[in-house]
Amino acid sequence: MIFEPNKKLGNTIGGIALGVVILALVLLFALVFLAPFSFRTVIWLFVFLLLSPVAVLLGLRLYGLRGASYQVSPSGIQIQWGTDKHNIPMHRIERVMPGSALDTNVFPRGVWWPGLMVGSTTHPSFGRINFYATTLQREQLFVLTDKRTYAISPADTRAFLDAYATAREQEVAVSEQPELSQTMPLLQRLPFWRDRWAQVLLPGTFFPLLLFFGLIAFNLSRLPASIPLHFNQLGDPDRMGTPAGLLILPVIGLVTWLANTALGIALHSRPNQRVLSYVLWFGNLLVQALLWAGALYILNVAGA
Q: Which of 6, 139, 255, 273 could disulfide-link 267, Cβ–Cβ 3.0 to 4.6 Å?
């Protein structure tokens, strides 16, 4: 028997939030790519880059809610939340209890809002709790296993408990029950999300790149109409151009950052090549240092 949570509140709040963020991104896109390039452009770009992951996260949360359901059968309970699926065999379930029975209120860590509570937390008595619910704790059910606890919120909790009791009486042999398992999307399974050093290193190497764009944008209006853009072996200018030609330097840094980041994440999923991923990510800093040095030299020669 399949049960669904109440999705209206979560979809409404999440849809409004996503709409506001998308509208802001459209306006920022116009300011960044359609308006004349200036120092403000870098500020709008920074806000655009901050909001883009928020839009993606909100979209993924709403996608998960759209396909949310709980299935009860003699072999166990299955939780479906978007592409995330948990199989909980009946013999691993110790009990199903109402959330109101807990003496303290628990909430998931991470991004959630009224009508959509997804995430995890730890509890001194129940260990790790995975939330796949749309209601507050008093209306949730807690599925306790020997490994972890699942917080769910079928719209009709009474009918769910009755279906669970019936399925428990009809429990099939252990050999016929699925293993306790979780199926997640490929990107969500990447070890990158469990490596705090990697999660600090990538933003840390991107921040100097953003400052680099700011440096060029700030000095564009202060430079003469023609500046040296390339030098020969003796250090003499051998190619002149407009100040806009300096933008090629941070663009090179951005392309290098994207390439090294993508390749590094691919290598990071292989334990024996994880060191290479760190080398690539630290290489971003080396490339940016060289580009910074070149830009500062040109600005100095040009008299900025």
A: 273
For tokens 């040296």, the residue is 228
Identity of residue 194: R
Distance of CA 278 to the CA centre of its chain: 20
Place of tokens 């806000």: 47
Distance, in Å, from the CA atom of 45 to the CA atom of 54, rounded to the nearest integer, reads 15
d(CA 136, CA 133): 8
Tokens of 150: 């699942």
**Rounded Cα–Cα distance for residues 304 and 298 (Å):** 9
- Asked whether the CA dihedral 265, 270, 274, 279 is positive or negative, the reply is negative
Structural tokens at position 95:
């009990």
CA angle 294, 295, 301 (to 5 degrees): 90
Compute the residue count for the chain: 304
Q: Around 66, how many Cα atoms within 13 Å sit in the side-chain half-sphere? A: 9
Mean per-residue pLDDT pooled into runs of 10, the chain (304 residues): 95 96 93 78 84 91 93 93 89 91 86 91 88 94 92 95 92 70 63 77 86 84 82 78 85 91 85 86 91 89 71
Task: Yes or no: say if 16 and 77 are a contact pair by the CB < 8 Å rule.
Answer: no
Q: Is the dihedral of CA 70, 72, 73, 77 positive or negative?
A: positive
pTM, whole model, 2 decimals? 0.73
Phi-psi region of 119 (alpha: psi -120 to 50; beta: other; left: phi over 0): left
